[in-house]
Amino acid sequence: MSSSWSSILTNYPLISAFIAFVIAQTIKFFTSWYKEKQWDLKQLVGSGGMPSSHSSTVTALATAIGFQEGFGGALFATALILACIVMYDATDVRLHAGRQAEVLNQIVYELPAEHPLAESRPLRELLGHTPPQVAAGGLLGIVTSVVGYFIFLDAR
């Protein structure tokens, strides 16, 4: 069992992806504090915002796999396609779902108090990302895995 844990703790692609996620969420947490002048712990785990933690995670994973297994292999191709799908989903599907939630929340807000839906809980509006948020997350992921690669090489 201990060799399984040591394998996980030395898995460069997994560690790169996890660190990229943590960095992106931490940036969002402090950015939110800077803008709002109050701490919002939901920013540590929530979706949406700058930079995209989804993008940073999948690009760190794909880049680390490329460094470890080779950029010409099937494993890197799989990770790259996964990253593209996640990033497309963040900027298109989830972004538009969030915008629809804004409209629906406004409609419900304007309903008369006696309407059965007037007391319904608002939908989450911050679901997706703008293209710059996805690009920033992608760049963060690449930088994280490149730095991790040089650290990993030095540790060998």
Report on the structure:
This protein has about 160 residues and is mainly α. The chain contains six helices and no strands. The chain has helices spanning about 1-10, 10-35, 55-70, 75-90, 95-110, 130-155.
Kindly list the characteristics that best describe this protein.
71% helix, Phosphatidic acid phosphatase type 2/haloperoxidase domain-containing protein, DUF212, transmembrane
Task: Describe the SSE topology.
Elements: H1 2-9, H2 12-36, H3 53-69, H4 74-91, H5 93-109, H6 131-155
Helix pairs in contact: 2-3, 2-6, 3-4, 3-6, 4-5
Concise account of the structure shown:
The chain has 6 helices and no strands. The chain has 156 residues and is an all-alpha fold.
Termini separation: 23 Å
Q: What is the total number of structural domains?
A: 1
Q: Which structural class do the helices and strands define? A: mainly alpha
Low-confidence stretches: none
